[in-house]
Amino acid sequence: MIHNRPTNGDRTYDVVVIGGGPSGLMAAISAQSSQARTLLIEKGSKLGRKLAISGGGRCNVTNAKPLDELIRNIPGNGRFLHSALAQFNNYDIIRFFENLGIALKEEDRGRVFPRSDKASTVVSALVDYVRNLGVDIRLNSPVNNLVAPNQEIQGIALTSGEVITARAVIVATGGANVPATGSTGDAYPWARALGHRIVPPYPTEVPLTSDDAIILQHRLQGLSWHNATVQLTAGTKPLATESGDLLFSHFGLTGPVALRLSHYVSTALRNNPATIFTAFIDLGGTDSQEDLAKRFHEARLSQARRQIQTLLHQTWPQRLTEVLLDIAQISGATPVSQLSNAQIQTLARLIKKFPLSISGTLPLNKATVTGGGVSVKDIHPRTMASKRCQGLYFAGEVIDVHAHTGGYNITVAFSTGHAAGLHAALFARQVSGTDA
């Protein structure tokens, strides 16, 4: 049963949205478009700060892949999003921005960007639309807590002491990974105080660290590999295989492949901090291990006098060649004709499954995305409404849902923001008696 709330005359908002990031902006648009008097409140001095730096400053607004593939690229509770995406999916996002007059383009792997290649195009269009709809906006207004006696939302309290009354509140404060943009995990204690379970935040879409001697000695630092395939294992158990660009750094591995694998590292470490990982990197391209071995066997005849380091350097970078030979315990000056069958097999195996120990990930403040947050067990998947507190809704990265980079996380933000805004508005209208 829905109970009427105490109001504060005309100053009571139907919906208050906390957070001016992508999910908060979309929630405000959705709520105001559903005839709800809406306030968007942001603790910083600007709206859309995290959006402005997304996609390398170009703003990857969504991904154009089919829905089932979209869900597969949301490894953190992706199935929770089926209902939200049924209401507002990636194709709806594309139409939404095109209707705002933003020309879009699709790039590799389904990534969708503004043709301007400027995130400011997207941020300006969203903020202008919010203003034109008549959403009230308050900046530099940090929230202290939610006002919800008896588990029923009545409004929010600012750190200034001001209380703003509202029939519904949408928490869209983001994760805890980018303090400079305001993502500092503010909402976790608010939600916990109202009985919500909080999955402790952890880094995802973050570079991998390694204590392997090759990394510690900086032997491959700065070496990049295009379209590498990497298999991650925990002990002898395969966890995941990803393909894409890879970069060896002074601390481990970075690049799209490393970021995609970080979810599995972080998840495994949460369950067992002593987990030992190995990344097996395929450096052989389309050649199989058998193909490589055959090439080396043929080279024993056709390039008999050539040194093995020279032969390898025809295909692989010099530093990588040196590392391969060191691991295989083969002198670089060895004539190809003198390679044994066992040495050939060792080299072929190393090239196809180059092993690198992985110790973990960089910390949360270096992550692109926050894992953890308000448990999806405490949120209705269709409406984004709290199961613990009437009139409370969640959207975006504050929820324990996370996706790979490539337009997937922002799709989650827009989809959950749309659902939260729509259903918070419907709820507020029921409470106020303006909706039968």
Automatic annotation (TrEMBL):
| Family annotation (InterPro entries) | BaiN-like, BaiN-like_dom_sf, FAD/NAD-bd_sf, RsdA/BaiN/AoA(So)-like_dom, RsdA/BaiN/AoA(So)_Rossmann
Stored Pfam families: HI0933_like, HI0933_like_1st
Lineage: superkingdom: Bacteria
* Keywords assigned by UniProt, alphabetized: FAD, Flavoprotein
Q: Which cofactor does it need?
A: FAD
Cite the RsdA/BaiN/AoA(So)-like Rossmann fold-like domain residue spans from the record: 14-421
- Residue ranges of the RsdA/BaiN/AoA(So)-like insert domain? 202-369
* PANTHER family recorded: OS12G0638800 PROTEIN
Report the protein name in the record: Aminoacetone oxidase family FAD-binding enzyme
Please give the organism. Answer: Sulfobacillus benefaciens
